[in-house]
Specification:
Elements: E1 3-6, H1 13-22, E2 28-30, H2 33-37, E3 41-44, H3 50-59, H4 63-68, E4 73-76, H5 78-81, E5 84-87, E6 92-93, E7 98-104, E8 115-120, E9 122-123, E10 138-143, E11 145-147, E12 153-159, E13 161-169, E14 172-175, H6 183-194
Parallel strand pairs: 1-2, 1-3, 3-4, 4-14, 5-7
Antiparallel strand pairs: 5-6, 7-11, 8-10, 9-12, 12-13, 13-14
Length: 197
């Protein structure tokens, strides 16, 4: 199985790659559209700001490739947010693989933004991504922007408001949390996406 990590410049590339190696998968890191298009599975990691990440994807001429990709695609953290139509973070157009706009999370009494730390996953509908992951299972989040719960949401979490924690629409999927930092839950989600569980 050829797994490609999109070189979107995120600081979590190394840790995602190591998490995949623990599953016996040696992913290729690439910013080449042809390499990405030939992969069996594609993972779009991301840490940072949406506008900067989209600038990097445009500079590498990867936006058309990722928009028309017909292979399973998993976005992680910012990478998941980039799958939506747009983001309020920099008011930027994104990849448009999922309907909706990513918005800033709301601070409120007792709720600090960014959302950093462990939070329980709440399944919303059946999904192969959640196989073997129990309701309430803890995952590690670091983000200040989020997508609203929608038809694509397979698991939500709550930090003040509810938000999409795991999404899936056909071959396109995403995790707002960091699987590479979420222990057994994260490893299981990655294994489920790769079909190696």
């Amino acid at each position: 199985m050829r797994v490609v990590l999109v070189d979107a410049g995120g600081a979590n590339l190394g840790s995602v790659r190591y998490a995949l190696q623990r599953l016996g998968v040696d992913a290729v890191l690439s910013g080449d559209g042809d390499v990405i298009a030939r992969a069996d599975r594609v993972i779009l990691p991301g840490v940072g700001a949406a506008a900067a990440a989209m600038r990097r994807l445009r500079a590498l001429d990867l936006v058309p490739t990722l928009r028309r990709l017909d292979r399973p695609l998993l976005g992680i953290c910012l990478g998941m947010q980039l799958l939506f139509e747009s983001s309020a973070e920099g008011d930027v157009a994104c990849l448009g693989r999922l309907s909706g706009r990513v918005e800033a999370m709301r601070a409120m009494p007792g709720i600090r933004i960014p959302h950093m730390g462990w939070n329980g996953l709440r399944p919303c509908r059946a999904s192969s991504l959640l196989r073997g992951i129990a309701a309430g299972a803890p995952a590690y989040f670091v983000h200040g922007y989020a997508a609203a719960v929608s038809a694509a949401t397979v698991a939500s979490a709550e930090h003040g408001d509810a938000f999409a924690a795991v999404v899936q629409d056909g071959e396109v999927a995403g995790a707002q949390f960091h699987p590479e930092r979420s222990g057994a839950v994260g490893q299981r989600l990655l294994a489920n996406f790769l079909g190696v569980a």
